[in-house]
Amino acid sequence: MLRYLSRLLTTCPSLPEKKRPSIIFFDADSQFTKFSKVEELPEKTRNLFLKHGIGEVNLQVFKLADDPVLGNATLSSAAMTPEDFVYLCPGLPAGTESNFLRLMKDAYETLRLKNLPLTFPLIRKTVMEKAEQDNLVFGVQRKSIGNALYAPEMDIFDQNGKTEITIEKIRKPGTISVLDVENSSQASRRIESMYLAQMLHSFKQNSINRYPSIILGLDEAEKIFPKATQRDKVYTARIADRIRYIVEFGRKRNFGVWIVSHLPSEIDPVVAKLPRTKIAFQTDESEKWIKSVFGSEFVRPIQSQESGVATLRSSIAKNNQKVIKTQIRFPYVY
Question: What is the signed CA dihedral for 223, 229, 231, 233, rounded to 10 degrees?
Fold first, then answer.
């Protein structure tokens, strides 16, 4: 369904090319890495697309993986600010953020003054050198910062010989960019998804132009923003609050986020409440979740929907407008 919708949005002839959105999929199981050519589609779908001028997808795929042999792309430290890294280090304990941020800022400035590249190995080395000499950083904090920076999942940054994922590569109007993370661990995916969200947020925050519109699709969101456990409650709360700010800011800047999940009841409550429009396809989710979002009268219809049919709940208008609840149909879904 999302392949269908993203093709419509990025190739629709009624939209001028420069106003077509740039869609970025954070793809957990390689389902967006291939799009059929129009001539290969089922007859009814093909005829519908030809009638309305829906064309071929402009697609680019980047593969991220814990095993460097399986990936062709890498994250770029130069695309991040010191503040961004607070949300990219799962092992950073509460109470350490202020010292960590100060050390990161000092490291960035030191590398700039020395005219050295802003790569993660150099940033990490510089931060730890400064931490050793800083009387404001206690021994336990120094160890915690080191553990966070040297965590295995941080090795996805600045890998030699890989394509760097930068805003210049993925902000192109009418283009679908896919970050295939099928071979990344859950810990790595949380870092990679927050990297994407923060990079796109920074671009929109600093851009004077409304276009290109940007849509970020976060697949398997229940694994990126799961309900917190005792072990990871600090990091879960940290990134949930960050994505909340990014989503709310993006509404004013033509930057939207699709939160995609087969198990929406497993998503952190802060994140689950963010979408003003919720669309449910056929699902085996519990009756409790369907009732809480759509109402008890929608339980049976949603659980028995056919392919191409969905139920929509929207509250995007002014406060005095009633919530919209309706069924929608996507013709000839392939």
Answer: 90
The answer to whether 278 and 323 have CB atoms below 8 angstroms apart is no
To the nearest 10 degrees (0 to 180), the angle between helices 97-113 and 120-133 is 120
C-beta of residue 264 within 8 angstroms of C-beta of residue 294: no
pLDDT (tens place) for every residue of the chain, 334 residues total: 788 889 999 998 998 888 999 999 999 999 999 999 999 988 988 998 999 999 999 999 999 999 999 999 999 999 999 999 999 999 898 889 999 999 999 999 999 999 999 999 999 999 999 999 888 888 889 999 999 999 999 999 999 999 999 999 999 999 999 999 999 999 999 999 999 999 999 999 988 777 889 999 999 999 999 998 888 899 999 999 999 999 999 998 999 999 999 899 899 999 999 999 999 987 776 778 888 888 898 888 888 888 888 999 998 766 677 888 888 887 766 5
Q: Are 26 and 259 in contact (CB under 8 A)?
A: no
CA 9 from centroid of its chain's CA atoms: 18
CA distances from 289 to 211, 266, 326 (A): 36, 10, 17
Domain boundaries, the chain: 15-74+160-263, 91-150
What whole-number distance in Å separates Cα of residue 143 and Cα of residue 138?
9
Tokens of 317: 């208008």
Backbone angles phi, psi at 326, to 5 degrees: -160, 165
| Degrees to nearest 5, angle at CA 21 with 206 and 332 | 160
Name the residue among 242, 250, 205 with its Cα closest to residue 224.
242
Question: Running DSSP on this structure, what letter comes out for residue 224?
Answer: H
